[in-house]
UniProtKB/TrEMBL annotation:
Gene3D superfamilies: Aldehyde Dehydrogenase, Chain A, domain 1, Aldehyde Dehydrogenase, Chain A, domain 2. Pfam families: Aldedh. Residues 29-482 form the Aldehyde dehydrogenase domain. Keywords: Oxidoreductase. It comes from Sessilibacter corallicola. This is NADP-dependent succinate-semialdehyde dehydrogenase. The active site is at E260. The keyword Oxidoreductase applies.
Length: 490
């Protein structure tokens, strides 16, 4: 029987519900439910991979590697381009799948798929420019050069908040560079990962190059991926706590690691900033994906002389944001991923109010359909949990400051180092702060940090390595030195 979601799709065959190994479904007996966060309905019953199936997927990918690493880069690029094209041709179906399982609003889900298509194209173009070097020789009878080679089996573990982009940024780059992949998506969002894999096979990706293992208990798959000697690398995006656990587990086989973890971004506004520009960026940095973003503006530090004007202008703008059904075209803020998230966010609001915060905007009594209407809290201070914890929801927390040195110290007063934003019309100040703020990505008079050609990644406890850009592709290759002894005369 077709599910309700299948009836909404132009190509219902994109709706896979079993682990995907060797370009086919692995029919398992244990199922788990994927729930629509807005309606509470079951979107699909999905087959759960276990440790035995994980070992089989690793073996399938090892077998595929012996062929895939020999495929000429131009042929790989042709497959990536077809894959990219198929994403664009199926953008609405893919967005419906994503919205149904994650609650991401439809227009943003469409945007995420387009970004995925751009990434696949860009990785292909960059792959053709990824070259080795001829090195100056230190000896007359030695010649040396470097070559870049794929690693082999790359494990990818991805979160629910960018359930397509996190898959493509990893698997797209790894596969472009000649590796093979075993991916474990979040148990909240397995369907979009499976649909992307299905389109890869339609694009001509050979059997075993990209395998996807949904599961409800993450350890069932994760423990095998981390322990297996043939898995050369783990590319992980998720919370810092999970990252620390996986870091330890991967130590035993000393895998290469690329980790994208949680953030606690400061959003600093000086008294000379353009307030309209600030408010427009504050909305995208706090309310995009209903606030569930790693680079979300967690702590708004506003210069005391413009504090009241900022709150007034922001409140007026936020009141206009359409909130509700994520499938509706105009909606900007949809539901939280699950009830646990709603409870956690209400806890953060209560903790702040109990410690002296002022509720400027928000009805904290109603969370129908898992939706939290925008909340603005002022009078925040460092004793509140929201100061040090990633908020991950539509809550603006406003702190005030009066000196550049103080605000830099407060902004850096966190273990996280993912993104930081600063707004001012003084370009010397923007440059000073870009150098002083401890974050892997700085937005100076902008919050647009994401593009396929710009490297992204955290420092401190927000991550290891980069994604996107040429740096992102380079994470997935070994640079091998080749030294050739020669006779200087014949
Ligand atoms: P999470 O850490 O709970 O889960 C992430 C993934 O890890 C999921 O697939 C989950 O099933 C898996 N996982 C959890 N425990 C595991 C274990 N013991 N072994 C193997 N796998 C395990 O994170 P989440 O709630 O899905 O995502 C939200 C978090 O991700 C936030 O902290 C956010 O900041 C972060 N994030 C970071 C970036 C970035 O680029 N830095 C991007 C998106 C999300």
């Amino acid at each position: 029987m077709k599910t309700t979601l299948a009836l909404l799709l132009n190509s219902p065959d994109l709706l896979l519900t079993f682990p995907w190994i060797n370009n086919q479904e692995a029919r398992v007996n244990t199922l788990f439910s994927v729930i629509n966060p807005y309606t509470g309905d079951t979107v699909a019953e999905v087959g759960a991979a276990d440790s035995e199936l994980t070992a089989q997927a690793i073996e399938a990918s090892e077998n595929a590697f012996s062929h895939w690493k020999q495929v000429a880069p131009k042929q790989r690029v042709a497959i990536l381009n077809r894959w990219s094209q198929l994403l664009l041709e199926n953008v609405d179906d893919l967005a419906k799948i994503m919205t149904s399982e994650s609650g991401k609003v439809f227009s943003q889900a469409q945007g995420e798929i387009t970004h995925c298509a751009n990434m696949l194209r860009w990785y292909g173009e960059s792959l053709l420019r990824m070259t080795g070097e001829t090195l100056p020789s230190h000896s007359a009878n030695l010649r040396a050069h470097t070559i870049k080679q794929p690693l082999g089996v790359v494990a990818c573990i991805t979160p629910w908040n960018f359930p397509a982009a996190a898959v493509i940024v990893k698997a797209g780059a790894a596969i472009a560079a000649g590796n093979v992949c075993v991916l474990k998506p979040s148990d909240e969002t397995p369907l979009i990962a499976l649909a992307l894999a299905k389109l890869a096979s339609k694009a001509g990706l050979p059997d075993g190059v990209f395998n996807v293992l949904p599961c409800q208990n993450p350890e069932a798959v994760g423990d095998v991926l981390c322990a297996h000697n043939s898995v050369r690398m783990l590319s992980f995006t998720g919370s810092t706590n999970t990252g620390k656990k996986l870091y330890e587990q991967c130590g035993k086989t000393l895998k290469r690691l690329a980790f994208e973890l949680g953030g606690n971004a400061p959003f600093i506004v000086f008294d000379d900033a353009d307030i309209d520009l600030v408010v427009q960026n504050a909305i995208s940095a706090r309310f995009y994906n209903s606030g569930q973003i790693c680079v979300g503006a967690n702590r708004f530090f506003i210069h005391e002389s413009i504090h009241d004007k900022f709150i007034e202008t922001l409140t007026a703008a936020v009141q206009q944001l359409p909130v509700g059904d994520p499938m509706a075209e105009s909606t900007f803020i949809g539901p939280m991923i699950n009830d646990r998230a709603v409870t956690r966010l209400n806890g953060l609001i209560t903790d702040s109010l109990n410690k002296g915060a002022k509720l400027v905007l928000g009805d904290v009594s109603s969370n129908e359909h898992g939706v939290i209407s925008p909340v603005i809290l002022s009078n925040m201070n460092a004793s509140m949990t929201a100061y040090s914890q990633e908020i991950f929801g539509p809550i603006v927390c406003v702190y005030s400051f009066n000196s550049e040195d103080d605000v830099i110290a407060a902004a850096n007063d966190t273990d996280a180092g993912l993104a930081a934003y600063v707004f001012s019309q003084n370009y010397s100040r923007l440059l000073r702060l870009s150098e002083s703020l401890e974050a892997g990505a700085i937005g100076a008079n902008t919050t647009a940090l994401f593009s396929e050609d710009i490297p992204f990644g955290g420092i401190k406890q927000s991550g290891i390595g980069k994604e996107q850009g040429i740096h992102g592709l380079e994470e997935f290759v070994d640079t091998k030195a080749v030294c050739l002894g020669i006779e200087t005369s014949n």
